[in-house]
Amino acid sequence: QVQLQESGPGLVKPSETLSLTCTVSGGSIVGSFWTWVRQPPGEGLEWIGHIYTGGSTNYNPSLKSRVTISTDVSKNEVSLRLRSVTAADTAVYYCAGRGVAWYFDPWGQGTLVTVSS
Amino acid sequence: EVVMTQSPATLSVSPGERATLSCRASQNVYSNLAWYQQKPGQAPRLLIYSASTRATGVPARFSGSGSGTEFTLTISSLQSEDSAVYFCQHYNNWPLTFGGGTKVEIK
Hints:
The complex is a heterodimer of chains A (about 120) and B (about 110).
Chain A: E1 3-7, E2 11-12, E3 18-25, E4 33-39, E5 46-52, E6 57-59, E7 67-72, E8 77-82, E9 91-98, E10 104-107, E11 111-115
Parallel strand pairs in A: 2-11
Antiparallel strand pairs in A: 1-3, 3-8, 4-5, 4-9, 5-6, 7-8, 9-10, 9-11
Chain B: E1 4-7, E2 10-13, E3 19-25, E4 33-38, E5 45-49, E6 53-54, E7 62-67, E8 70-75, E9 84-90, E10 97-98, E11 102-106
Parallel strand pairs in B: 2-11
Antiparallel strand pairs in B: 1-3, 3-8, 4-5, 4-9, 5-6, 7-8, 9-10, 9-11
C-alpha cells in the first residue's frame, strides 16, 4: 500500500522559505494528485494546495502568493515551498493522497515546522 | 469560501453509548463531504466520504448521514479507542475547507 513520509527542517527563521519533501513509497506518484495540508498546534486543518503529476496545481487563495508545490518523478517525491514565513506558519505539515474525489487518503505522519528566530 | 462549523466542540460519552457529531456547511455542498478521525500525535484518518460511505477498514459502528448543509457522524456504540478529534471537510468547490473539529471524550 502507498505510504507517505514528510521530511525537512524543523526550524525556519522568519522571512525565510520553508521547504518540505514528501517521499512516496509503495506506488508511483505518476498519474495521481498529491496534497499538502497543515495544522497549527492545537488547531484545525488547512488545505494548502495540490499538484497533479501532469503539472497542474491548485492553491488555497490565502497562501497562493507564497506557495509552490512540485514533483520529482525520478525520486517519487512531492515538494512544498512556502516563502516569507512568519510565526503564523508554525504548524504540522502533512502530505496526502487523493481519494476518488477530493478527500484525502492516505496521509503521511506529518512534520512539525516551527518559525522562530 | 465554504465555512464548515462543527458542534459540539467537546462531547463526553460513556462506553457503549451513542455519539452524535454535527457538521454544518455555510452553503450547499451536496454530498461532497468527508469525515476524519485524529488521535493525539497522529495524522488524520479518513472515516467517511461522500457523506455516508465508510472508508476501507472503518468499523461499522461509524456512520455518516446528511446532504446539502447539514451532516452527522454517528458512532453507534462508543469504544475506548474512539477517543479522538473528528473533523469534517467539504470538497464541493475551491478552496477545500475543514471544520474546527469535535473532541470525543470517554466518560
